[in-house]
Design goal:
This protein has 20 helices and 16 strands. With about 525 residues, it is of the alpha/beta class. The longest helix has 17 residues, at about 15-30. The structure holds hexanoyl-coenzyme A (HXC).
Length: about 525
């Protein structure tokens, strides 16, 4: 028997337990070092935090409990048996964020580039299963070179095990993905199936195949940043919902997002204390321009309605003709969908329909009431839109609103024309309360376009066609370009002054708080994908 490390006695039996404790401590210390100090330094040099540092910034102090710190991989090919790192490239566990339970995995780029082995996948699956069983959000901090190349199909199987769980968890618990480094190959599909993706500008990228493969297959020369950087995915593809300036900002954004959403599909979002005061907002009286063809910023309307500084925009740089995001109304979390007249006159097109539909479906999954602000001239015409399936994509939004059972309130601030009137949370597709401002124009189309069609012969035959058109335009406008026809039919519940909008919404969302809708039994609907 070797001499005791504590008293140097051969065969000492007093300090046996001390030695066992010490072994555990040294293993934990080894696990905390991941792939070693040199690789940690390299990570820092790139301006990135390590997996453990990220968890430190995410969780409430002292709340994180690790699971599986001593896991090692089982691979033996390519000398892998001799390359073991405790934890196998991913830190997993649970803790609290602002006092609420969350589960987390953080890939450790210092261990085989955060690549996913069979055991690495098993660790992620274990916390995903716990998150679903215990009804708490799952947060993935991704930084991975994809499938662990030395493991072949074992690693592919590991990815599929995670994908399967992403889908089973979808709509049951919120799933949020932070992308904090490269995410290639399989590493992109799991985040894509979660509810929200946050990417870091300049240090994260996502693509199915990197620039080298792109060059070989398509002969295109493209940088990693251009192909799959944060700006690309924020503005061109819409893959990412939020962009952060660095790792800490990314984690702050994840925390802010969590503050608006409930723990699971049976829970309600956290509510902040709020004392009702004077809820009239006079600034809303002056936002809409007198000329109906002039733009205004719908975000000013949102700011005038919701609790101060509470609007948290999602997908800010993608399909800017529609605005979506979370906010609070008298301390209560709501989701907002709003046409943006500042961009493409707020028209609905392929991308804006997809963006809004996904947001509506998220809110409906997690009991977040919806406020819809409407100023929409219709669907965007043209070959580009038709060939990119505006029919299918526009119907995604129609479908999403129609199937949503959360409290849904609409305010028409100005135009609500054509099919877009129906789609934008009209009474006919199940909205609970529909308001309009006095300048609202609810019609099949604008007065000019309508007059040109239905009065064509009269205008052509007139001595002064321009004057005739103006006369007919006024006649059509006086008849239809107002909210009163719709109000007379009950399609609009009330025409309200802009300044009373916030007060009305607070009262009507409170009135709808116990809304319950029974749906016909079915497996699931067939949303037009
Ligand atoms: C094993 C990997 C690895 C991988 C990186 N490493 N990727 N080990 N499997 N997939 C290791 C490197 O050997 C290196 O080890 C360390 O991680 C850091 O990698 P570097 O290349 O030095 O870092 P960097 O220059 O920052 O480049 C990062 C990278 C690059 C862009 C991620 O490593 C890369 O392109 N990796 C391969 C990406 C890929 O093709 N993955 C497979 C995708 S296929 P040392 O010992 O030096 O620290 C896939 C299929 C799944 O995922 C499909 C499911 C649907």
């Amino acid at each position: 028997m070797p001499p005791c490390a504590y008293c140097s006695l051969n065969g000492c039996c007093i300090h046996i337990m001390e030695q066992k404790f010490e072994l555990l401590r040294s293993k934990i210390a080894e696990a905390k070092l991941g792939g070693g100090q040199k690789r940690i330094d390299a990570q820092h040099k790139k301006g990135k935090l390590t997996a453990r540092e990220r968890i430190h910034f995410l969780m409430d102090p002292g709340s994180f409990e690790e699971i599986g710190a001593l896991v090692t991989h089982r691979a033996t090919d390519f000398g892998m048996a001799d390359q073991q790192f405790l934890g196998d490239g991913v830190v997993t566990g649970y803790g609290t964020v602002n006092g609420r339970l969350v589960y987390v995995f953080a890939q450790d780029f210092t261990v085989f580039g955060g690549s996913l082995s069979e055991t690495h996948a098993e660790k992620i699956c274990k916390v995903m299963d716990l998150a679903v069983r215990n009804g708490a959000p799952m947060i993935g901090l991704n930084d991975s070179g994809g499938a662990r190349i030395q493991e072949g199909v074992n690693s592919l199987g590991g990815y599929a095990d995670i994908f399967y769980r992403n889908v089973q968890a979808s709509g049951v618990i919120p799933q949020i993905s932070a992308i904090l480094g490269p995410c290639a190959g399989g590493a992109v599909y799991s985040p894509a199936m979660t509810d929200f993706i946050v990417m870091v500008e300049g240090s994260s990228y996502m693509f199915v195949t990197g620039p080298n493969v792109v060059k070989t297959v398509t002969n295109e020369e493209v940088s990693s940043e251009e192909l799959g950087g944060a700006s690309t995915h924020a503005s061109k593809s819409g893959v990412t919902h939020l962009v952060a300036t660095n790792d800490v900002d990314c984690i702050e954004k994840v925390k802010r997002l969590l503050s608006y959403i409930p723990q699971n599909c049976e829970d309600q979002a956290p509510r902040l204390d709020y004392t009702l005061g004077d809820e009239y907002r006079d600034e809303l009286m002056h936002i809409i321009p007198e000329n109906a063809n002039h733009p205004y910023d719908m975000k000013e309307v949102i700011a005038g309605i919701v609790d101060t500084d509470s609007f948290f925009e999602i997908h800010e740089s993608y399909a800017e003709n529609i605005v979506v995001g979370f906010a609070r109304l008298a301390g209560r979390s709501i989701g907002i969908v709003a046409n943006q007249p500042m961009n493409l006159a707020g028209v609905l097109d392929v991308n804006s329909s997809k963006k809004a539909a996904r947001f509506v479906r998220f809110c409906d999954c997690f009991n977040i009431p919806l406020l819809v602000l409407v100023d929409v001239p219709g669907f965007l015409p043209g070959t580009d839109q038709e060939w990119n399936a505006i029919i299918t994509n526009g119907s995604k939004l129609l479908y999403a609103f129609s199937e949503a059972t959360v409290p849904r309130i609409t305010v028409i601030t100005r135009k609500a024309y054509g099919g877009a009137y129906d789609v934008m949370n009209s009474k006919h597709i199940g909205a609970d309360m529909n308001y309009a401002w006095p300048g609202a124009e609810i019609a099949v189309m604008g007065a000019k376009g309508a007059s040109e069609i239905i009065f064509k012969h009269e205008i052509d035959a007139a001595a002064d066609p321009a004057a005739k058109l103006a006369e007919k335009e006024k006649e059509y406008g006086d008849t239809f370009a107002n909210p009163y026809r719709a109000a007379a039919r009950g399609f609009i519940d009330e025409v309200i002054l802009p300044r009373e909008t916030r007060r009305k919404l607070i009262k009507s969302f409170a009135m709808l708080e116990n809304k319950a809708v029974a749906r016909a039994k079915r497996k699931h609907g067939n949303v037009p994908l």
